[in-house]
């Protein structure tokens, strides 16, 4: 493992307090209809197929984790508070999707607060890490799996270009498919690349959630989507709704919502892009 990836994975300090989270009975399914709530950064609550999934939980208090090393704007992370308490983020959750275990997607607070027996869907390279952390129901997805009538397919990605992207690999995305529900592609930490283009062609999603923010180190260029990448996704999938998240919460994300909104406003694709605020709920069907 490279020094850069090791330092990125080590960035963060634990909240220190656990919260007892009540589990919802398996039979108590949510009403039909798909919707997504942006909690903060890449943390989402997705209501889909009568189930509720938590995506990439980063649940730390502001400033609980150090800045990402060798990156712009060196301030302690997260930069902003959760819009709702952490225990409410975890309430009624049926499963957790973790695209990768960088601390802005799976932080010490999540390790402490997510119940150890919660169903976790992860990429295969993270299986050992989850076992070491005591999670007993983590399921590594190689290509796809079916869970409670929902097909969850794993996609690839490129966490930056050139040497930086190779050092930060591997990362994954997930595609959710359910009968009578829109197909949702959660792209994860990736720039526009052949993996993303291939996922769009293979799955033809109705909704695409992209991690924007143009996150970067002091050298090497963006490691998540910048405005040009977001617009490229729109052009490649002109009928899809694109939801841009992963902004204004971690010190090395330099693309703001306002700047992305301005770039989108000058594009023919502007009607297809949503840029939610923290805590905002978007109805998908």
Could you list some keywords that capture this structure?
14 strands, alpha/beta, 285 residues, single chain, seven-stranded mixed β-sheet, Metallo-beta-lactamase, Chain A, globular
CATH class: Alpha Beta
CATH topology: Metallo-beta-lactamase, Chain A
Looking at the structure, what is the overall shape?
A: globular
Q: What order do the strands of the largest sheet run in, or round the barrel if closed?
A: 6-5-4-3-2-1-14
- What does the main sheet amount to? 7 strands, mixed
Radius of gyration: 17 Å
Q: Helix count? A: 8
Order of helical and strand elements? HEEEHEHEHEEEHEEHEHEHEE
Question: What oligomeric state is this?
Answer: single chain
Distance between the termini: 42 Å
What fraction of residues sit in β-strands? Answer: 15-25%
* Quantity of strands, as a count: 14
